[in-house]
């Protein structure tokens, strides 16, 4: 495998003393896991953040070998990780995507939708500006993986968006996460609690 492409970094698991195993979503190859030497070092630590857009150079000698990757930062989501709501949303959509997407299956629609959602989370003036896109992404993920998805609510109707968000919890747990729902659904529960405060404020 030899691939150089933009990628959305979704997760990074420590490996050895300084390396990480990262899961990245690319448009053409789908989800790719790769070994990143020095991923926890001073230079790469700000790059290996879930939600970041990177230029990934991914290489392996065979299909059975875990690829090695080198990364260059294209767009950082780091500044928004100190904000509770954006941080919770970025954490949730990245954890969900990293957990449920099969490797090496291209989903160009999901890549585009996730890229747009992350941009919205970081650029909208409030969660009301991106909550509808988050629900739409969850629905698209369910549909692309073969489980339907439901009708998208009007993004301008925050109450309808929240009702749809709550209604999607069961199919996400039941179909997408099944036996691996624990820590991943905890991220969604945290996000839901923070979004509910906006509803309570009217």
TrEMBL record:
Q: Which residues form the DNA replication/recombination mediator RecO N-terminal domain?
A: 1-75
State the coiled-coil residue ranges. Answer: none
Keyword DNA damage attributed: yes
Q: Name one GO cellular component term.
A: bacterial nucleoid
One Pfam family of this protein, by short name?
Answer: RecO_N
- The organism's place on the tree of life at top rank: Bacteria
The entry's keywords: DNA damage, DNA recombination, DNA repair
Does the record carry DNA damage as a key word?
yes
Which biological process terms from the Gene Ontology are attached to this UniProt entry? Answer: DNA recombination; double-strand break repair
Q: In which family does this protein belong, per the annotation?
A: Belongs to the RecO family.
Give the protein's recorded name: DNA repair protein RecO
């Amino acid at each position: 495998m030899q691939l150089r492409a933009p990628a959305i970094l979704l997760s990074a698991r420590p490996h050895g003393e300084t390396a990480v195993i990262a899961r990245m979503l690319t448009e053409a190859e789908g989800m790719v896991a790769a070994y990143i030497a020095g991923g926890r070092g001073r230079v790469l630590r700000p790059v290996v953040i879930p939600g970041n857009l990177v230029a990934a150079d991914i290489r392996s000698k065979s299909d059975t070998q875990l690829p090695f990757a080198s990364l260059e930062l294209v767009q950082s989501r780091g500044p928004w990780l100190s904000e509770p709501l954006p941080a919770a949303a970025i954490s949730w959509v990245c954890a969900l995507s990293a957990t449920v997407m099969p490797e090496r299956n291209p989903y160009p629609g999901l890549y585009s939708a996730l890229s747009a959602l992350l941009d919205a989370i970081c650029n909208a003036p409030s969660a009301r500006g991106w909550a509808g896109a988050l629900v739409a992404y969850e629905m698209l993920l369910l549909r692309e993986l073969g489980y339907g998805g439901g009708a998208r609510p009007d993004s301008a109707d925050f109450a309808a968006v929240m009702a749809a968000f709550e209604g999607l919890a069961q199919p996400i747990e039941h179909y997408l996460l099944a036996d691996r729902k624990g820590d991943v659904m905890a991220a969604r529960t945290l996000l839901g609690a923070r979004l509910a405060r906006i509803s309570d404020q009217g």
